[in-house]
What we know:
- The structure is a homotetramer.
- By secondary structure, chain A is of the alpha/beta class.
- Chain A contains eight helices and 13 strands.
- Chain A has helices at residues 11-21, 52-70, 94-104, 123-126, 143-156, 173-178, 199-206, 241-264; strands spanning 2-6, 25-34, 40-48, 73-75, 83-89, 110-117, 133-135, 161-164, 183-187, 210-217, 227-234, 268-271, 274-277.
- Chain A has a seven-stranded mixed sheet, with helices on one face. In chain A, strands 2-3-1-4 form a four-stranded antiparallel sheet, covered by helices on one side. In chain A, strands 12-13 form a two-stranded antiparallel ribbon.
- In chain A, a hairpin with a 5-residue loop joins β2 and β3.
- The longest helix of chain A has 24 residues, at 241-264.
- The model of chain A has no long low-confidence stretch (mean pLDDT 93).
- Chains in contact: A-B, A-C, A-D, B-C, B-D, C-D.
- Chains A, B, C, D: This is Formyltetrahydrofolate deformylase.
- Chains A, B, C, D: Catalyzes the hydrolysis of 10-formyltetrahydrofolate (formyl-FH4) to formate and tetrahydrofolate (FH4).
- Chains A, B, C, D: GO terms for molecular function: formyltetrahydrofolate deformylase activity.
- Chains A, B, C, D: Keywords: Hydrolase, One-carbon metabolism, Purine biosynthesis.
Amino acid sequence: MLISCPDRVGIIAAVSEFLHKHGANIIHSDQHAIEREDGIFFMRITFQLDDLEEKQVFLCDQFQQVAEKFAMEWKISLSSQKKKVALFVSKYDHCLQELLWRWRIGELDAEIKMVISNHMDCQPLVEPYGLPYYHIPVTKEIREEAALEQLKYLKKEEIDTIILARYMQIIPKRMIDVFPNQIINIHHSFLPAFVGANPYERAFERGVKLIGATAHYVTEELDEGPIIEQDVHRVSHRHRPEDLIRIGSEVERIVLARAVKWHVNDQVLVHGNKTIVFPG
Amino acid sequence: MLISCPDRVGIIAAVSEFLHKHGANIIHSDQHAIEREDGIFFMRITFQLDDLEEKQVFLCDQFQQVAEKFAMEWKISLSSQKKKVALFVSKYDHCLQELLWRWRIGELDAEIKMVISNHMDCQPLVEPYGLPYYHIPVTKEIREEAALEQLKYLKKEEIDTIILARYMQIIPKRMIDVFPNQIINIHHSFLPAFVGANPYERAFERGVKLIGATAHYVTEELDEGPIIEQDVHRVSHRHRPEDLIRIGSEVERIVLARAVKWHVNDQVLVHGNKTIVFPG
Amino acid sequence: MLISCPDRVGIIAAVSEFLHKHGANIIHSDQHAIEREDGIFFMRITFQLDDLEEKQVFLCDQFQQVAEKFAMEWKISLSSQKKKVALFVSKYDHCLQELLWRWRIGELDAEIKMVISNHMDCQPLVEPYGLPYYHIPVTKEIREEAALEQLKYLKKEEIDTIILARYMQIIPKRMIDVFPNQIINIHHSFLPAFVGANPYERAFERGVKLIGATAHYVTEELDEGPIIEQDVHRVSHRHRPEDLIRIGSEVERIVLARAVKWHVNDQVLVHGNKTIVFPG
Amino acid sequence: MLISCPDRVGIIAAVSEFLHKHGANIIHSDQHAIEREDGIFFMRITFQLDDLEEKQVFLCDQFQQVAEKFAMEWKISLSSQKKKVALFVSKYDHCLQELLWRWRIGELDAEIKMVISNHMDCQPLVEPYGLPYYHIPVTKEIREEAALEQLKYLKKEEIDTIILARYMQIIPKRMIDVFPNQIINIHHSFLPAFVGANPYERAFERGVKLIGATAHYVTEELDEGPIIEQDVHRVSHRHRPEDLIRIGSEVERIVLARAVKWHVNDQVLVHGNKTIVFPG
């Protein structure tokens, strides 16, 4: 259960009393309050309740009273209802490989439904996983048409999460509007440094001593969406641009895998242009 | 407020309802449940309540009913009632220096009351801080007498926390019994590797590629108490034992400063031989 | 070119003069001198020389005079002559997967010739790579016979490097004698902590705040061989043993991949029970 | 000895032969060659030679022949001739404190000659070290006059290195011209992210998950000079701007201390807008 509302006295008491009354056992409960300016309260509660699937409609109905009193935005996600994920990829396959591998060993609690690519290169890697691989070429001129074709597949499988696993094309507004804060991109720099193209080459030129990667939700502003996770790795004057690409690819796949895991577990809340990442 | 009790349905609801009823505003609330074996529940709640100092006795009295129902161990600490700390040191001064500096800039929310040392070496460093410096020599033969003298000073100032900031003497049982889980030691290795004497020399001999430091509560078993915090730093074949000592001293002071901060903020709960460290 | 010899004045001058005289261009040159006790000098020189393959015998012959003067142990490896590697694995496949993937993208400059396993589990993962997968069951009773069968395959392909990518069997002396400092193991703890079985379970019991992995050369003493690389990852009281296994597997594969890369690039020299790892 | 020159065959041989001929014992020797574009070769040699102080003029004279042959820029620094350092500081004292402490324990092999500040705040901290503290107020209007006064003190003590230990004033061109690549600044962000003022506030607004610090040489372009060292620390949504300042101050002092150490040990070479940092 994820909740956000104006911060007031009594929210935790009201929610935990409600859950207790309906027989739920709270396993984790994490809160975060932003004191600055507006005073917003965020809460994530993991609870266990027998026959939740049957009771869900009734429970939500009842909770509406509590929610209205505190002007809450809220949702209940069942751990049995997994997120439906599409992976977008171009030619680099390290992020795709990492996500598929973690999914296979049970670390990503989601249903990966398809891989969409503007190239055929990654098809052999995907094949053993038995996933459909949709090859939809994209150029600047046919971006909108390509998005329509992508959307057709996405809707058919009721996809709710898109992972850009080094997908080297700009996502059109049309697509972002359908998936607000549901598209995760991996940018191969420590944002906000090196926004845009060729970050490793530019990191080399600037002579930085650490290179990084950033997983963020996609918004209309390129590389400006809410950051979910970042990490860095040490480099030195001995490393050439091709070394930065190699070392960076290791950071990219770890950072993206963490962000995707948190997202599919409903651990991430977006507020303005920032994320609150609750512990798992 | 810190609580630990057997894990049952309804604890969070009961506690938050109680606090709400008495007009408290919950700022943070963190829980941790151990599912294995016994099923223990741990909780740390930070709340704000006007005139808490006056109401404390009444509130504790009332809470006793809730506590009994769930068989809780619990305590309420006021942020205005700071921990009273004694620093023990021998000759190395880097940990002492770090703690005093952080205390001066307001980062350690505690009252440092005294420095106790078996040497005079650190006295000049302490002097500008206006703290009493008690020089109490210790040898194996007079360990018990020394402890009695130390205890005299500690009791006089109602000390509740002892920090061994590289104090190179064994703490006798007599002292540990008075301060259970209230004495923090910094060991200059990544425990449980290199328990005991000369860890850097032994790390050098073994050819490890990372050296570390461990802050832990002192128990009767040398270097076996509950670990509060650990960290490491990379080393290479180029580093000689004296380099390990130098690099390690940086890790030691950071690790100890973190552990002391968490302890004086009541963020640490001990269960068996492990710690639960709640976020601040 | 790798050299080790007693430390004396003039070694670098003699070697670089020799190479210069024969038309070689030194690309990198790294030295390390151990001052303690014996005074040993280590050197790794990367040089470029046209037609080196043809000239190799002549060059080595000529260098013998320099080598004798300084009592050197030395060898010249051609970057065109890649190490021949066998991967040993049991049931866990994360390290195997990581190595195969890095090999495929060209990051491991070696010839992986075969996978040997005491189980069939990893066979499907290996198949797409077109490598032979030898299934040789091992129990304590038939360890020596199994080693003989393994050695048969290893000799046939002139293997010079064995990687134990989570191979859960003890390597018999017979095998170690054939491959001195040529067998790399990944141990799932930060050695020398948690030598032996079940390190994650024991790390959980001890309540450590960081878990680690160690890549080392295999010697007759279990988990006591020269350490090549180590790393750690932060954990907390929220993590159960199964989380430690999952988090640790990430550290294991990164640490092993680094160690293997350095080994196949001839960046590692062993001295006593320690390694000198030259930068790449 | 630091050397940079166009990359050609035979440099290492020529230099090491020269040193050997004059009786020097090479302790360390590190090279770095930039292959791209111009092909530049960099070298740092640490050697031991009896009576070097007396022989220095003769040796340099002789070496000039070697240097001319390869068009070298070069210099020989004696470890007995320490760099003369001035520390510039404003109100924040954590970097100053760190440097003074490391200097006192012998970790900074330099002569700190004075502290210059535009405020009186840090005077008490400096006093126990017995260093002169020059209070020179600066405003935008009197920046040039202030620089002239600073230069007077700097010249008097033959200062060759200026450390801006959180000195919150822009350094005028007049000063930079006198100390090219000899002024080290600590910027409280992971450059090139958050160039300019208030980086922590801007890091908070952007919602980054790591904050950093960067030590760099000062050039006329604000925060654009050659980077010597960088590091980062993890933060989360729980941290407010004041927490970022506190956590960041820890990174700042470690990063600056490393950079200063490398600089005073002559481990840093500047090429264009980048640094080559040789291992110590």
